Amino acid sequence: MGTIGWSSEDPEEPESTQNFSVPQLRDQHYSIIAEQDRGLEALSEVISRQKKIATVIGDEVDYQNDLIEDITDHVDRTRDRLVGETSRVRTIDRKDNTCGYWIVIIILLIVIVILVSI
């Protein structure tokens, strides 16, 4: 059995870093962190833009909902007026007595027959 140590043959150390000194590894580590920081900054900018877009979309949805509520209110008022007017027309139709019209028609027919026979 072997022992684990700091030798260059350490199986956990990647081959790409085995020949670097500690300052070189530190510089490589800092450059990797700097690259990650740039990536995180870019991601932060993308998320900020998406947040602004989501806010604008939310505002537009609120505006559209207000419009829909206004339209619904107008439709409800129009429906109520239509129901009222329909009720009035039905009342007038029920009160209308066509018997009077038939009497007038018969009287006019008799008058026409009398005038024609004279």
Note the topology:
Layout lengths: L21 H74 L2 H20 L1
Walk me through this protein's architecture.
With 118 residues, this protein is mostly helical. It is built from 2 helices and no strands. It is rod-shaped. The relative contact order is 0.03.
- Approximately how much helix is present in the residues? over 70%
Quote the distance from N terminus to C terminus: 147 Å
Shape: rod-shaped
Which series of helices and strands comes N to C? HH
- The number of helical runs is 2
- Rg is 47 Å
Helix-strand category: mainly alpha
* Overall mean confidence score, pLDDT: 85
Key attributes of the depicted protein:
118 residues; mainly alpha; 80% helix
Brief digest:
The chain has 118 residues and is an all-alpha fold. The chain has helices at 22-95, 98-117.
